[in-house]
UniProtKB/TrEMBL annotation:
PANTHER family in UniProt: NAD(P)-BINDING ROSSMANN-FOLD SUPERFAMILY PROTEIN, RETINOL DEHYDROGENASE
Protein name per its UniProtKB record: Short-chain dehydrogenase/reductase SDR [Chitinophaga pinensis DSM 2588]
InterPro entries xref list: NAD(P)-bd_dom_sf, SDR_fam
Family note: Belongs to the short-chain dehydrogenases/reductases (SDR) family.
Lineage: superkingdom: Bacteria
Pfam families (alphabetical): adh_short
Source organism per UniProt: Mycolicibacterium parafortuitum (Mycobacterium parafortuitum)
Annotated TM spans: none
Sorted UniProt keywords: Oxidoreductase
Length: 167
């Protein structure tokens, strides 16, 4: 790789915490879905969003494991979701269409497949998915929830790491 990374001037560095990043940000009344929000980066993301006031649905293939990891974290609900099972995705979407969605964090990583070959429905202009680990699994949820649950009045641009990773 010949291109070196350069700081983008965020004011945050290697020692910055999620508390630093979210300082002064009130997410009260905002709703988030975090896939695999009970492990690794997803766990830290879930805790940070909940600490900032967001209501967080953690989507997990293993709800029992998720419940144990998130014990004591307020404003978190756990829901069963297997991103590799279309019926599971459909059930999850149907169960979450009555609440406005402000953030979708596709943290679950299932390696395999090629993003270029993915069959993905177009997203609304104000909705951008996050994919921390690229794979076909996380991309199955995005079209479902953006078609039903995004509140058009208050939809926020969802964190977009995938574009930066693929650039």
């Amino acid at each position: 790789m010949t291109n070196k990374q350069h700081p983008i001037g965020t004011g945050f560095g290697p020692a910055s915490t999620t508390t630093d990043v979210l300082a002064g940000i009130d997410l009260t009344g905002r709703n988030a879905i975090v896939t695999a929000g009970h492990v690794g980066l997803g766990l830290e993301t879930t805790r940070a969003l909940a600490d900032a006031g967001a209501n967080v649905v953690v989507a997990s293939r293993n709800p029992g494991t998720a419940a144990a990891a998130l014990a004591g974290v307020d404003r978190v609900r756990i829901a069963q979701l297997d991103l590799m099972d279309p019926a599971s995705v459909d059930r999850f979407v149907a169960e979450h269409t009555d609440t406005p969605l402000h953030m979708l964090i596709n943290n679950a990583g299932i390696m395999g497949g090629d993003l270029v070959d993915a069959d993905i429905a177009p997203l609304e202009p104000d909705v951008r998915p996050v994919s921390i680990e690229m794979g076909s699994g996380p991309l199955t949820l995005t079209p479902g929830v953006t078609g039903y649950a995004v509140d058009p009045e208050s939809a926020e641009k969802l964190w977009e790491l995938s574009e930066k990773l693929l650039a």
